[in-house]
Amino acid sequence: MASDDRFSMTTEKYLARHHVLVYMEDAVAQLLEHREENSKINPIKFLCEYFNSVRDGNHTMFREYSYIHATPHNRASFVRLFWKCYRQIGKKGDLLSIQEYHSLLSLLCSDFPFEPVQKTAKIILLDDALDCLISFSDFIYAFQVQFYFEEFIEKSHEMYQSLHQTQRSPRDPVVVPSGSDDTKVHQNSHHPGDGVDATQYFRAIYPLCDRSNFSTPPVNVLKEILFNVPRVSFYGFLMSIAKSERINEHIGRLPSKAELLEGADADLTVQEATIQNHVRKSFGDSKGTHGN
């Protein structure tokens, strides 16, 4: 955000946009909880470490789902945590089921619900064959979009359904955007009415991007995706968002797909390394049948 925008906002708007009260309330609650266990704890030092952890994005491990889900920064930080702890799965080329991905998420957040994982799989598999195995790279970028833009996806799905009711073109092909220049056209094999006019869909979801109470993809990227195809299916639209490098850069927590599996694990915290070693032992020999 530009500095002039920051200084032009009211105090209340600034606090709300950056969810400052969420972190203040949680910091105080955490401090009180730790003081019950150790009465000699230094409050100033504790709060300093807490907010340094928030700033660095190292604050979501083993926290409850309500906290992880509370702010866009928490959501993006949790996605990065998942990547840091489990990227060796991608390096090995293992393919996992959605139940296995949910188990991995539950190691980091014990009450993480199954529904977001199901919705992630629908993005990848286009709402079909949810028992298929999924690669790590496909999963994490789709999961990032589903988790970070959850409210936007829900609202845009409602608008898609509404628009779909008014558009019936059984003989038209449905275009599933690929996120690249070589857009592929597929004849619809599921339902003759699948897919809507892409330009009209953009106009329908455009007002969502002015909303400040939830995260939305950049308007120019949505326009690029939807103006390059005549018709689009809902899950094809989401897949295109998941594959977009510009949207990944906009969120700013995961590396590009080309660099996703590169690099050493020197940046892992002790807790992250412990999780990774546990997964390496658990998935080491048992994933032989899941490889490419």
List keywords for this structure.
single chain, 292 residues, mainly alpha, 3 domains, two-stranded antiparallel sheet, 15 helices, 58% helix, 5% strand, globular, Centriolar satellite-associated tubulin polyglutamylase complex regulator 1, phosphoprotein, cytoplasm, microtubule, cytoskeleton
Strand segment tally: 6
Per DSSP, the total helix count is 15
Specify the biggest β-sheet.
2 strands, antiparallel
The rounded distance between the terminal residues' Cα atoms is 42 Å
Number of domains: 3
Question: Order of helices and strands, N to C?
Answer: HHHHHHEHHEHHEEEHHEHHH
Instruction: Tell me, rounded to a whole number, the average pLDDT.
Output: 85
Extract low-pLDDT stretches: 178-192
The neighbouring-strand order within the major sheet is 1-2
Shape: globular
Helix content range: 55-70%
Gyration radius from CA atoms, angstroms = 21 Å
Which secondary-structure class do the elements indicate?
mainly alpha
Strand content: under 5%
Describe the structure.
- Helix 6 packs antiparallel against helix 9, helix 8 (115-125) crosses helix 9 and helix 8 packs across helix 13 (234-243).
- The chain folds into 3 domains: 3-56, no CATH class; 69-148 and 262-286, no CATH class; 150-251, no CATH class.
- It has helices spanning 3-8, 11-17, 20-37, 43-56, 65-68, 72-92, 98-108, 115-125, 136-148, 150-166, 198-205, 219-226, 234-243, 245-251, 270-283; strands at residues 95-96, 134-135, 174-176, 184-186, 196-197, 231-232.
- The chain has 15 helices and 6 strands.
- It is mainly α.
- The model is unreliable at 178-192 (pLDDT under 50).
- The protein is globular and about 70 Å long.
- A two-stranded antiparallel ribbon has the order 1-2. Strands 3-4 form a two-stranded antiparallel sheet. A two-stranded antiparallel sheet has the order 5-6.
- The longest helix has 21 residues, at 72-92.
- A hairpin with a 7-residue loop joins strand 3 (174-176) and strand 4 (184-186).
- It starts with a helix and ends in a 9-residue tail after the last helix.
